[in-house]
UniProtKB/TrEMBL annotation:
EC numbers, comma separated: 2.1.1.177
Keyword Methyltransferase: yes
Pfam families: SPOUT_MTase (PF02590)
One Gene Ontology molecular-function label: methyltransferase activity
This protein's encoding gene: rlmH
Catalytic activity: pseudouridine(1915) in 23S rRNA + S-adenosyl-L-methionine = N(3)-methylpseudouridine(1915) in 23S rRNA + S-adenosyl-L-homocysteine + H(+)
Chain positions recorded as S-adenosyl-L-methionine binding sites: L73, G104, L123, G124, P125, L126, T127, L128
Protein function: Specifically methylates the pseudouridine at position 1915 (m3Psi1915) in 23S rRNA.
Organism listed in the record: Arenimonas soli
Gene3D superfamilies associated with the record: 3.40.1280.10
Family label: Belongs to the RNA methyltransferase RlmH family.
GO biological process, one term: methylation
Primary residence: cytoplasm
Protein name (record): Ribosomal RNA large subunit methyltransferase H
Amino acid sequence: MKARLIAVGENPPGWVAEGFGEYQKRLSHWLPLDLVEVAPGMRGKGRDAARAMADEGARVQAALPRNAWVVALDGRGKAHSSEGLAQRLEHWRQQGRDLVFLIGGPEGHAPDVLAAADERWSLGPLTLPHMLVRLVLAEQLYRACSLLANHPYHRA
């Protein structure tokens, strides 16, 4: 099984790219994780935020691979403990499909993107910068994989 992260936004700060790259490298033998960056919609004075979100949604949907299990990161989704995420990851593995995780833009996901998702995952009630969510996602996937492999990374 492989995983892909489709994220709205380009050119993360160096510390995000470095941290994401570190966990991407650590995950490589358990769950290869590719990053696909999608250009954000045009925002600003006189611009329509709903149109920007719709444009992002179209680009996200165009980047979705066929037959993958799609998980949208969404504040209204289901929250998991680290152990619960490991159990969820094991469930996803048993399906025999690749995984796709989606991070939306400033307003979140377009409605059609949420409708196309197989499930929604919430990282909790905090609002996090979307670039930081990339790093948190990669770390939590690594933690879940390490739990499943009885690796000592996770110490509760």
